[in-house]
Amino acid sequence: SAVISQKPSRDICQRGTSLTIQCQVDSQVTMMFWYRQQPGQSLTLIATANQGSEATYESGFVIDKFPISRPNLTFSTLTVSNMSPEDSSIYLCSVERDRVGYTFGSGTRLTVV
Amino acid sequence: GENVEQHPSTLSVQEGDSAVIKCTYSDSASNYFPWYKQELGKRPQLIIDIRSNVGEKKDQRIAVTLNKTAKHFSLHITETQPEDSAVYFCAARGTGTASKLTFGTGTRLQVTL
């Protein structure tokens, strides 16, 4: 399965600041997905990142709050901007591989204080 | 968009018993249905998946069934063991260019001795 390196693994941030999460895949993939998992909840898709085009955001998520970069086919970043305590969650990146399915990075546990 | 419902939200079984988790989906064009196991503090791990052209798939103690007509699919775990205790998520992939997964709300499985 795809090896996905995600960092940071956790962070504690002050409200009003921003955090950028990085996701590196061991081989080229067309799409990368960013999810949020609030405590005790399921996974909610934030956006889909394609290389060379703007990310596609799901309902309830906007680019100003969650800007995404996808500079090449193995890397993506998600920024959580102007953070508030409600942004405290686990953020996960994911990729799809033929015959392997969708795999996830190890996640970033964000706490906003 | 796709909507996935999952039941039950919690399930407690005795070691050696079987566990069944059920999901329904709304998009009749959905074509891929994975199941994930998430242990506390870890990333979701794909345990089994099924595609829309297959009715049943089995992997050792785990099986998944799909009823396309009724738009539901189920996870079956036989001979449960304490290490099966985790949160399980079903998901469905709709059609279209995004190839995104929509997740169910999760089932917390507790296997007791």
Oligomeric state: heterodimer
Strand tally of chain A is 11
Count helical runs of chain A.
0
Number of helices of chain B: 0
Termini gap of chain A: 36 Å
Largest sheet of chain B: 6 strands, mixed
Structural class of chain B: mainly beta
What would the average pLDDT of chain B be, to the nearest integer? Answer: 94
**Main pleated-sheet profile of chain A:** 7 strands, mixed
Spell out the helices and strands of chain B N to C. Answer: EEEEEEEEEEE
Give the low-confidence spans of chain B.
none
The number of E-state strands of chain B comes to 11
> What overall geometry of chain B do the principal axes of the alpha carbons give?
globular
Pick out the low-confidence regions of chain A: none
Q: Over the alpha carbons, how many angstroms does the gyration radius of chain A reach?
A: 13 Å
Can you walk through the features of this model?
The complex is a heterodimer of chains A (113) and B (113). Chain A is mainly beta and 113 residues long. Chain A is built from no helices and eleven strands. In chain A, the strands form two sheets. In chain A, strands 2, 4, 5, 6, 9, 10 and 11 form a seven-stranded mixed sheet that branches. Chain A is globular. Chain A starts with a strand and ends with a strand. Chain B is mainly beta and 113 residues long. Chain B has no helices and eleven strands. In chain B, the strands form two sheets. In chain B, strands 2, 4, 5, 9, 10 and 11 form a six-stranded mixed sheet that branches. Chain B has a five-stranded antiparallel sheet with strand order 1-3-8-7-6, with no helix packed on it. The mean pLDDT of chain B is 94. Helix content of chain B is 0%, strand content 56%. The radius of gyration of chain B is 14 Å and the shape is globular.
